[in-house]
Amino acid sequence: MRLKQNGQEMLDVNKKKYRQLFWGIGVVSLAVILTLFIVSQAYIQNLVYHERLSQMEEVTHQMFHSLEDVIDTHWDEVDVQCNYLYNSPLETDTDLYRYLKKLSELSNYHEKQIDLIAVDSAGHYYTTHGRTGLLRGITYLESAPERVSYVSNSLTEDDSRMVFLEQLSTPITLQSGEKEITLRYFGISQSMTQLNDYFRCDAYENNNSVYVLDHDGFKLFNANDTELLKGHNVYTVLSQMSYLHGSSFAGAKERLARTGSCYSNAVLDGTEYFYALKQMKNAQWTLAFLVPAEYVAVNTQKLVNIVMVIIIVIAMMFSVITVFVGWFLLRQKQQQELRAEKEANLRLEQYNIHLTQVNDELRQAQDAAAEALQSAERASKAKTDFLSNMSHDIRTPMNAIIGITTLMKNELHQPEKLAEHLGKLETSGQLLLGIINNILDMSRIESGKTTLNVEKMNLPQQVSQLDSIIRQQAGQRRQTFTVNTHLQHENILADPNRLNQVLMNILSNAVKYTPTGGHIRLEVEELPRNEHYARYRFVVQDDGIGMSEEFQKTLFDPFTREEKSGTNKVQGTGLGMAITKSIVDLMGGSISVESAPGRGTRFEVVLEFPIAMESDHAQKVQALPEEAEETSPLSGMKFLCAEDNAINAEILEMLLESKGASCTICPNGQEIVDAFASVKPGDYDMILMDVQMPVMDGLEATRRIRSGENPLGRTIPILAMTANAFLEDMQKSREAGMDEHLSKPVDIAALEQTVKRFRVTSPIKK
Fold first, then answer.
1. ∠ CA 17-21-24 to the nearest 5 degrees?
2. Lowest mean pLDDT: which of 18-27, 226-235, 597-606, 633-642?
3. Using CA atoms, how far apart are residues 59 and 278, in angstroms rounded to an integer?
């Protein structure tokens, strides 16, 4: 009985324990379910928040992308207008205003509310109305970036405008009364009202605001009538708003500075807003997009509400089921714990293996990043060295141009000296153009894709051109420069530009590294060869600072300079002699150097050229006085011209008319083909053909004229006048049927010399 009673008591105790355990499981289950519900709700709300941000990012990206396309189109227009400006013969500010007005009329800018703008070095800007003001608060003149874009209301009184300015690679100097102005930037401006369509957003039923801000957050322009933020500074208002989801305005500004865009939400006066900030490329302004949260991801919010109801129903059902199955779960607790422990150990082992793999991948990524950083640094250095090299090679003739210009300012009332200086200016300018072409062609030389442009050349004339440039440089440093020539054959077949570049690099270095009062000597001596070829030795000797024996071993390596007190103050890239060596090797010659510190330097270049026997006779004939020299060979000639650029066409027409010639302009290749079909004998003497044109290019137009039904197409001279100046471009012109190839900018003297060879009648005397 006692045992039975004890068993019953034990049974009651177990029942009581099971009941307590049962209710305990129920309470714990309800607590867990409630917790999961709260956590899931927070998680879903976070998903909704990120969905809204994602939608904002997508909508604003489309809006900003369309605007950036418009901006890119404007930059393309600025590039075109800058090219037009380079090819326009502007001398005074009056010429500039006339040019801007005519170009605006041709481009129909008035309908688009676009103005052309030129900015000088002092910050003054010029439009079709003349000098109209000073750009204040703009810092681009100090840093001198290649491109400047900003929104300003300073250009007009009633309208905000978007301004695009591009730095001129070569400043343009104009005469303004007794003063000179130097144009540094050129571009366009457009009224911001023309961009309103790009700021509209149908997704939010136009319940949004779009502002254009400066770098401090002040409003420059409101793109629509909706005004969601009061006040002049948007950044100030945003910083005072209450932020959610752990975000902040400081974090948003940091992302804006780092990535160029940011997206966030905040509460103002009880209303939640989502906003986006976007910095425009190459611009000094920012776009701000603001919309109330109730208009963002509306369908997503409805879907979330439905899901929450479903979750509540499922949670209640799950609670009931949990209470009934709790006792079973308790019985399996121990087994579950054992299985869980085994699974945990297995996961831990797998995690360790994965962690090892991740560490290996991380080390590989770090190594790759380090290598990429080194490659980027090498590329950056190579770019910097290349740009410095361009300055080195261009500086020599540019110094001559600047020096002669200074002399001309002091000799304005001496026509004889001005004429002499103008000749030297032309020589230096042509040499500068040749150097620029050689620098652009250097990579082609190194890759073996470019050959020498061999032509008939008079060696004493080339030496004389060098003499005029180097003698002026030496004179500025009170140095003595002498030239001695011992030649038997003066006329040879060679590339004059490449030969000039070789000698100019060596001579300019001699000037730079020779102290004031020093001596520099150039000797040109012809060595014995045979009746068909001539070998020349070019020796440049100076008594300058000299070079060490170690540096001479790396003299012809790119980007090498000797670091010592005598050279630190001399500007240079260390690339000039490498270019010189490459050109000498290309011409099949040799170059050597002898030098010692404090004892000067001696360079010796030996080159071999074919002898141009016919040149001697030609030169003698040209030396005789001709009656035709008094009248331009172009006088009385009639030209049929193809030129798609309106400005270039006008310039060509004026140049020909100044020489007594007339011309008919066709804007593309198809029109000149159609026009020539009806040409009769005596209508035109020659065709001037541009190459790159719309509808039909000049090459195809030439082929059709040569093969057309008009028999005059077989005999009429056709000259190519194009900016394509490489040797392969000239070859393509001749293959198409053109007789000669002249490079732009138009050299009227070169055109006259070319016309002499094709003209069959004497020019009309004036």
1. 140
2. 18-27
3. 13
CA 56, CA 132: separation in Å to the nearest integer?
Answer: 41
Q: Is the preceding peptide bond at 745 cis, omega within 30 degrees of 0?
A: yes
Q: Which two tokens stand for residue 599?
A: 């004892």
pLDDT tens digits for range 656-666: 998 899 999 99
Calpha distance 733→702 (Å, rounded): 9
Q: Which of 168, 83, 78, 167 is nearest to 116 (CA)?
A: 78
Q: pTM for this structure?
A: 0.36
Contact, 166 vs 147, CB < 8 A?
Answer: yes
Residues in the chain: 766
Q: Which two tokens stand for residue 264?
A: 């966030």
- Contact assessment for residue 322 and residue 29, using Cβ atoms and an 8 Å cutoff: yes
Straight-line distance from the first to the last Cα atom of the chain, in angstroms, rounded to the nearest whole number: 153
Q: What are the CA-CA distances from residue 111 to residues 105, 106, 191, 617 (Å)?
A: 10, 12, 11, 62
In angstroms, rounded to a whole number, what is the distance separating the alpha carbons of residues 297 and 301?
Answer: 6
Could you give the CA distance from residue 65 to residue 379 in angstroms, rounded to a whole number?
A: 30
CA angle 666, 672, 676 (to 5 degrees): 130
What does the pLDDT look like over 249-273, one tens digit per residue?
888 888 888 888 888 888 888 888 8
Structure tokens at 135: 């750009």
Q: What is the DSSP string of 472-504?
A: HHHHHTT-EEEEEEE-S--EEEE-HHHHHHHHH
User: What is 634-758's CATH topology?
Assistant: Rossmann fold (3.40.50)
- Nearest partner of 524 among 541, 544, 545, 505, judged by Cα: 541
Looking at domain 88-195, which of 3.30.450, 2.60.120, 3.40.50, 3.30.360 is its CATH number?
3.30.450
Long-range contacts of 298-304 (CB under 8 A, 24+ apart): 300/48, 300/51, 300/52, 300/55, 301/48, 304/44, 304/45, 304/47, 304/48
The pair phi, psi for residue 142, each rounded to 5°, is -80, -45
Alpha carbon distance 749, 429 (integer Å): 14
CA within 13 Å, CB half, 114: 19
Q: Which one has a higher pLDDT value, 317 or 712?
A: 712
Domain coordinates in residue numbering, the chain = 19-74+299-352, 88-195, 453-616, 634-758
Q: Which residue has the tokens 């956590």?
A: 39
d(CA 730, CA 698): 13
What CATH class has 453-616? alpha beta
Residue 426's Cα: distance from chain center in Å? 29
Residue 448 backbone class (left: φ over 0; alpha: ψ -120 to 50; beta: rest)? left
DSSP 629: G
Average confidence score pLDDT of the chain: 78
Q: Are 588 and 608 in contact (CB under 8 A)?
A: yes
Do 424 and 451 meet the contact criterion of CB atoms below 8 Å apart? Answer: no
Q: Using one digit for the tens of pLDDT, what is the confidence trace for 293-330?
A: 777 765 565 566 666 667 667 766 766 676 566 666 65
